[in-house]
Amino acid sequence: MSSTSVEPLVKLAELPDRGRALVATCPIKPGEILLSDAPLILYPATASAAATVCSRCFRSLSSPSSAPIRCPSHCSASPAASSFCSARCLASHSPNLCLALSRLPASLPSELLSPALFLLGAYDLAVASPSDFLRLLSVHGTAAADVDAPALHSLVSSVLPSPPSGFSLELTATLLAKDKANAFGLMEPFDGGDRRVRAYGIYPNASFFNHDCLPNACRFDYVDQGGERNSDIVVRAIHDIPEGREVCLSYFPVNWGYAERQMRLLEDYGFRCECDRCVVEKDWSDDDDDDDEREEEVEEGMEEDEGDEAMDNMEEADDGDGKFPHAYFFVRYVCDRENCGGTLAPLPPSPEGMLSNLMECNVCGWLKTEDNTDQDGGEGSSGLMLD
């Protein structure tokens, strides 16, 4: 990655009180793809998840079109890796990592398994691609107090075939901090209930997106699609973004309440959010019914507005009464399907620059037109393929 540029539409910059951030290099249209990023490391969220997906790219192995390919050597005894979706994935997996995985205790507690899998992947990366390992070390991360680094270091040292140069407890703790602050979840398809994480990945360019509780971009993953880049994540603009504006994601579902958002940000990322939305909501009561009434009251007034004019009204709506200036975001950009709450972004513009009127949900994968007509997403609940 260039020191100043990630993609043509966004660039890396230092912002006061924000640190490293991605900002728009030009006016960005709704739905434009800002980033398509490949992971440095992928690892399963749970041992049970690992048993049903490709151990390399994490595509589901349940497809009837092809039988899983078993690793012929070390993986048969591993709780975390054994099968692959294609000969390509089998050929590209690491023999050293495979051996280390086979040595992990089958009864390893879940709270140790996930970070151990990350560490094994990270130390394997140090040997296989030192330049990518340096990219991993370059992402932000502060010490994670809730992670037992000494225990994990001891575990990893006992299963690594040959520890890489520089292997130490200090390096292990540093790596765990990078994982804590930067891991993106690749999700299981939405089934109407709680959506589960299938795998975690460290995406070096996407890690520069800062958080906002009213994001102007959102990310999509299509892990079960065909092709060789199914584990990439794609970031698209939710609405118009002017040149020079910071581009932000939400690190969790945007429909979370104030207290839940602040707790997650403090525990996982080490900061409290003071975005415009949080400044308004911090003075609210914890009564959810009152919050719903606030949304309904403002939504009634917002429904008559359209497009960018409504977005401008949303941004200017807080005249000091502090009621619910961001209601329009929830009307237009939050999926209202039952138990979903995902974020909606338009499909990419056509090659000729024509904007799409189809909004895609990044959780349930369904499409709806701007007049709220549901459309079938083609790939079912796992979303559409993006070439």
Described by strand count, sense and barrel closure, the largest sheet is: 4 strands, antiparallel
Instruction: List the secondary-structure elements in sequence, H or E.
Output: EEEEEHEEHHHHHHEEEEEEHHHHHEEEE
Spatial gap, N to C terminus: 22 Å
Helix content: 25-40%
Principal-axis shape equals: globular
Mean pLDDT: 81
| Beta-strand residue fraction | 15-25%
Strand order of the largest sheet: 14-15-16-17
Structural class by sheet pairing and helices: alpha+beta
**How many helical elements?**
12
What is the β-strand count? Answer: 17
- Rounded radius of gyration (Å): 22 Å
Spans where pLDDT lies below 50 across 5 or more residues: 1-7, 301-308, 313-322, 377-387
Characterization of this structure:
The protein has 387 residues and is an alpha+beta fold. It has a domain at 41-185. 32% of the residues lie in helices and 17% in strands. It has helices spanning 47-50, 87-92, 95-103, 110-128, 130-138, 149-159, 169-182, 258-269, 276-281, 288-302, 307-316, 327-333; strands at 5-7, 10-15, 19-24, 33-37, 41-44, 69-70, 83-84, 183-187, 197-202, 210-211, 217-221, 233-237, 248-249, 344-346, 358-361, 367-369, 374-375. It has a 4-stranded antiparallel beta sheet with strand order 14-15-16-17, with no helix packed on it. Helix 4 (110-128) packs across helix 5. It is globular and about 55 Å long.
